[in-house]
Design a protein that fits this description.
By secondary structure, the protein is of the alpha/beta class. The chain has a single domain, classed as Rossmann fold, CATH 3.40.50. The protein has twelve helices and nine strands. The strands form three sheets. The protein has a five-stranded mixed beta sheet with strand order 1-2-3-4-9. The protein has a two-stranded parallel ribbon with strand order 5-8. Strands 6-7 form a two-stranded antiparallel ribbon. The chain starts with a helix and ends with a helix. It binds 2-acetamido-2-deoxy-beta-D-glucopyranose (3 copies). The site of one 2-acetamido-2-deoxy-beta-D-glucopyranose has 4 residues, from helix 10. GO terms for molecular function: lipase activity.
């Protein structure tokens, strides 16, 4: 009898301390950026099918319905949330979403660091930051300022941004790259990104996770821009992403020096994706160049789903054998592969550091 009470007491205190511990160390995930991370915000804005993925066959593999994710299934951020024991992080604009304590997804397909990037069709990073400010205000009202501050500073802030700033001049007939040198343009993109990051930091964020840019000239959609490329990478565009990536690393080191408590993890998405593209078999894939869904050469024409002006498209039978789902985005199996390395389950040597996303969910 005494023993029973004793054990019940132990059990009771263990569960109380677990609960306290759990709320104190709650680490929400806030997501910003472009279609690599958009979980459906663009379903709720006035835009065109070019910047949406809320139609079949998007989502066919995992969700069995189109959620707005630009893939056949889950995204890198969905796997990171899962590994961190969080529920799927809901889009900010999803009606009825007012539970912010596990994080929010602000990302928008087509968005860039520059307001001009696909202007009018996307939620630019600057507006995403403004939406974060709203959420921070709501959390302060709900939890009180000290608890909200703790939650926000514990949070992990994940970014994928920049790709569209470089893609858009090539995909629209813009002359912007004629009026700026490549290094001036990269500097402008990163200055805009930096000032937005500083604003998010000011509202309480401390733990930042960045993916650098993929080799942008080597996705199916950009391999076919010019017939004379013959399906090869568009070197000028890949060079821009490499330049951006070199400067990005310096910019982040600088921010960590200047802003007290600013911590970052940087993932070398560029090298990782290049390896996957060149050696798909090493990653359990069969095809590293052509998309699963689309039309024309390498299925590089952005027609997946038939809602973007062109009705006909081809769809592969086994998306999990492909690196690219559509002309610009990866399959769920590729995203999982990458998330596993980002988390450190498999080869973690693409984490450039100084922190990893895993550190951020474990550190106070
Ligand atoms: C959506 O955008 C189109 C084209 O820009 C415009 O004609 C229409 O009025 C907009 N609709 C709303 C509800 O804002
Ligand atoms: C941000 O980009 C705009 C162009 O979109 C540019 O005019 C402005 O100078 C940039 N801001 C900073 C702080 O560099
Ligand atoms: C891990 O990734 C690095 C960087 O690309 C590579 O050099 C190394 O061979 C990989 N190791 C394994 C075991 O795959």
């Amino acid at each position: 009898m005494k023993f029973t009470v004793f054990f019940l007491l132990i059990f009771f205190f263990a569960s109380v301390s677990h609960t306290i511990h759990g709320s104190k160390n709650r680490v929400p995930l806030f997501i910003f950026g472009d279609s690599f991370l958009d979980a459906g915000n663009n379903n709720y804005i006035n835009t065109t099918a070019l910047d949406q993925a809320n139609f079949w066959p998007y989502g066919e593999t995992y969700f069995k319905f189109p959620t707005g994710r630009f893939s056949d299934g889950r995204l890198i951020s969905d796997f990171i949330a899962e590994y961190a024991n969080l529920a799927l992080v809901p889009p900010f604009l999803q009606p009825g979403n007012n539970q912010y304590s596990g994080g929010v997804n602000f990302a928008s397909g087509g968005a860039g660091a520059l307001v001009e990037t696909f202007e009018g069709s996307v939620i630019p990073l600057k507006t995403q930051a403004r939406n974060y400010k709203k959420v921070a205000g709501i959390l302060r009202q709900k939890l009180g300022s000290s608890e909200a501050k703790l939650l926000l500073s514990n949070g992990v802030y994940m970014f994928s941004i920049g790709s569209n700033d470089y893609l858009s001049p090539f995909l629209t007939d813009s002359d912007v790259l004629k009026s700026y040198s490549h290094s001036e343009y990269v500097a402008m993109v990163l200055r805009n990104m930096t000032s937005i990051i500083k604003g998010i930091y000011k509202r309480g964020a401390r733990k930042f996770v960045f993916m650098n840019l993929p080799p942008l000239g080597c996705v199916p959609g950009t391999r076919i821009i010019d017939v004379e490329q013959n399906g090869e990478c568009l070197q000028q565009l890949s060079d821009l992403s490499s330049l951006h990536n070199r400067v990005l690393h310096r910019v982040l080191l600088n921010l960590a020096k200047k802003l007290k408590g600013f911590k970052f993890a940087l993932y070398d998405f560029n090298t990782d994706l290049t390896q996957m593209m060149n050696h798909p078999f090493k990653y359990g894939l069969k095809e590293g160049k052509s998309a699963c869904c689309g039309s024309g050469r390498l299925r590089g024409e952005y027609s997946c789903g038939g809602k973007r002006g062109q009705k006909e498209f081809e769809l592969c039978k086994k998306p999990n054998e492909f690196l690219f789902w559509d002309s610009y985005h990866l399959t769920e199996s590729a995203y999982k592969n990458i998330a596993d390395r980002m988390w450190g389950f498999t080869n973690s040597s693409y984490n450039i550091g100084p922190y990893t996303v895993t550190d951020f969910f474990q550190l106070p």
